[in-house]
Amino acid sequence: MIKRHRKVVVFGAGELGGIVVELLARHPSFRGEIVLADLDSDRAWRRANSAQQGALQWGCETRVRVERADLRDVAGTAELLARLDPDLVFNATTLATWWLRDLLPEAVKQRLHVVGAGSGVWSASHAALAYNLMRAVRDSGIRTVVVNSSYPDGVNPALAAAGLAPDVGIGNGDLLVPALQQVVAAQFGVPCHRVGVTLVAHHFHAYNILMHGHAHGLDFPVRISVDGRDVSDRVERAALFAAVPDVARIPGAAAATWIVAASAIRILTALLEPVGRLIHAPGPLGLVGGYPLQVDESGVALALPEGLGRDEAVAINWEAQRAEGIEAIEADGTIVLTDVAAGTLKEVFGYECRRYPLDDCLAIARELTAALRALGERHGLALQTH
C-alpha cells in the first residue's frame, strides 16, 4: 500500500498525461495528491476535474488540482517545483506526438522507419522539454523521483550525459511484455497471469514486433515461464513474434495511449510503494534501452536474468538504438544521428541536421514540427502538431 499524503506532479495535460491522471486518481492504493501542470490551464482543469469526479465516483480519496507551468521557463518551473516539493514527477510532455506519424501514408511511414532511422530522428523534439524539466528539478534544490515518458530509451541517456538523468522511463519495451504473455498463454492454454516474461528490449525491438512481428534480425534476450517454470526452450521465437500483431493487436494511433498509460501507472505506483516489484522499463539509471528492474520507493535497480551481464545488456540496447537512428551520445549529451537517419531527414523532409545539442533541441524541434506539418499537407493531412 502506498503511504498517505504522497504528492505526484504530472507535467502535460495532453493525451498521455490526462489518462495517467485519470487512472492514478482512481488507483486503489493511491490516497495522495495529484498536481496536473500545463501551459493550458483550461485544458488542465477540465482533465483534473474529470479525474477528481471519477475518483469520487469510485470512492477514492485522491485530491487533484492544477498549476500553470511553462517548461520553456526553467526558472519559473524550478520555483514551482520548490513550492510543491513533490515525491514524484512524471513528464508527459513532448514536442513530437508519436502517433501523428502513424497517420501518414504507408509508403511514407516505411521510409521513416527504415533500419537506421525511426524514432531517433525525433529525439530532439522528445528531449527539448525533458531537458528543461530536469534543469528545473536540479535548480529547485528538491529531492524527488523523476519518470520521463518522452522517448526514454534515447533521451534519458542523453540527459544523463549532461548530469540530468531522470530515474526511469515508461512503456516501449514494457509494452511488449503483456503482448507476449497473451500469445504464450494462447499457445499453452493457460490464463495470461500465469505466464512470466523477462526481457531486455529497446523501443526498436518492441515497436517492430508489435507492428510487424519481427525485429529485423536484431536479437535480444527473452525468457518465458509458465507457473514459474522456464519454458523458453518450448517457444519458437520467430513464431512467437510473428503472432503478436494478430493475437495481441490493439487500437492504433491515439487510442493506443491507454496501454502506454497503464505501463506508466505500474511504474509510478511501484516507485511509491515500500515493497519491491519486478517490472520492465526503459532508460533506468541513464542507460539506453529497456531492462528488467527491481523497483520500490527507494529507487530502481537492474534485475537482469541470470547469465546476462550489464555490459552485454547495454550493448544489445545500443545495437537497437543505432538501428533506430542514434549513432552516439556525446559527453555533453549531444545526440548524434546515424547516416541513415540524417539522410532520411534530408530526403523526406528536406531538412539537414546531424547533431542535436541539448541546448538547441527546442529550436530544432520547432523546425522538425514545421517539416512534419508541411509533409502532412503535401499528402492532404492537417496534422495537429505542437
Word description of this protein:
It is built from 13 helices and 15 strands. Helix 1 (15-26) packs across helix 10 (257-272). The protein is an alpha/beta fold and 386 residues long. It is globular. Strands 3-2-1-4-5-6 form a 6-stranded parallel sheet, sandwiched between helices. A 3-stranded antiparallel sheet has the order 7-8-9, covered by helices on one side.
Strand order of the largest sheet: 3-2-1-4-5-6
Percent strand equals: 15-25%
Oligomer: single chain
Count of helical regions: 13
Radius of gyration, in angstroms, nearest whole number? 20 Å
Give the proportion of residues in helices: 40-55%
Characterize the largest beta sheet: strand count, sense, and whether it forms a barrel.
6 strands, parallel
Secondary structure: number of strands: 15
Q: What is the CA–CA distance across the termini?
A: 38 Å
Low-pLDDT ranges: none
Sequence of secondary-structure elements: EHEHEHEHHEHEHEHEEHHEEEHEEHEH
SS class: alpha/beta
Overall shape: it is globular
Overall pLDDT = 95
Write a concise keyword list for the protein shown above.
386 residues; alpha/beta; 3-stranded antiparallel sheet; 15 strands; 44% helix; 17% strand; globular
Can I get a quick summary?
The protein has 386 residues and is an alpha/beta fold. The protein contains 13 helices and 15 strands. It comes from Tistlia consotensis USBA 355.
